[in-house]
Amino acid sequence: MTDTLAPPKVPLDQVTGLRPLTDTTVCVDPQAAYAALRARWDGLPIAPVALADGVPAWLVMGYEHVRAVSRDDVRFARNPAHWRQYAEGRVPAGSGLAPMMFPRDNAYFADGERHARLRAPLVHGLAGLSEPRMARVVRATCDRLLARLPDTGEADLVAGYAQQVPMLTVAGLFGIDPDLSEVLQRCLIALFGSGDDSQAGNEELEDILARVLAAHRDRPGEDDLTTAFLNHPALRDDAEIVQSMVLMMSAGWETTTVWIGHTLRILLSAPRFAARLRGGRLGIDHALDEVLWLDPPMCNMPARYALCDTVIGGRHIAKGDPLILAFAAANADPAIRRDGEDWPVPGNRAHLAWGVGHHACPAQRAGWLIARTAVETALHRLPDARLAIEPRRIALQPSPWTRGPAQLPVLATRITDRQKESGHAA
């Protein structure tokens, strides 16, 4: 999608008055934040923003423009080596952006044949998973976590549940000791936060996974993903194996945690869902889809880098400029909505939450299974659960990329009863 008309050329590095990207994530109304960006910058679907450390980037907010950038391998690349500011040493080595935007030896940061090679082990590993077995494991994990909730009738369904289910599941898939769950979560929260502790969290994560890899080399597992990666001919050395583990673990945990948290939030607070819950028609699939439209797990996806000077969305983009794909903004793009139409339309899965093109998420089925099982089990085991605070007061986990609940305090008077019934009293 190339445009012939554009505002006067202004190099990204010289644009002033930039708002931080976190304005769109750490806020009550992200769509209002995206709308303000459009209005501030010529009404166009691509606006300049400041990333962590004040590093500038273009934020792509139009639905068709996100699709176009994602699918155009001629003009846009995923490899950060094409990022002009990074290549010129103008992004600090200690930047909090490093874990999410500096080069890594995995598929996320690769293009062309190298991307295909590094993606193959991920696709093959996921294809080898038994979905019925995985569903049983996830449900058992959910039951166990819910049985451990405090018997006071108060609980946090993020720290005690939404964060735990994906981590224990993903760690189990890699044959990682569940006792490492808490430290792995801490590392990943830091990584996605892109703050001062981001690099330290990433280094600790890589160290843990390197030790897991070494242990599996000495004593291979039977059907875990670590062993599968060790034996896959496409991965040529330990660095590629560890970084592929980082990719699957970070994407699998963060996105699924946010998805579960937001789905439970709207099911417990939105009147249109509350009626269905009371009537026995849970509407879980509708709620899961609605979150992918309104609060996709990755609101702002880093990054594509322009391979040439070009024009897109009416905006001049210079070679080497970084582009952040605003999935949350694109899903709500007025250009794709009909006047007077209820939105999002139940069953419509044309959202961009999974990405599009060669880099689309390969774990969609696994993510859906984990999220749906977690939400369904929580509603079944805690049928009278309700939010303990107003939805607008729910704290958000700081990150320029994701917009997930940091907590989800609920009241559920039947927690103790459900524990006794299941035989898993805390």
TrEMBL record:
InterPro entries: Cyt_P450_B, Cyt_P450_sf. Belongs to the cytochrome P450 family. This is Cytochrome P450. It comes from Amycolatopsis rubida.
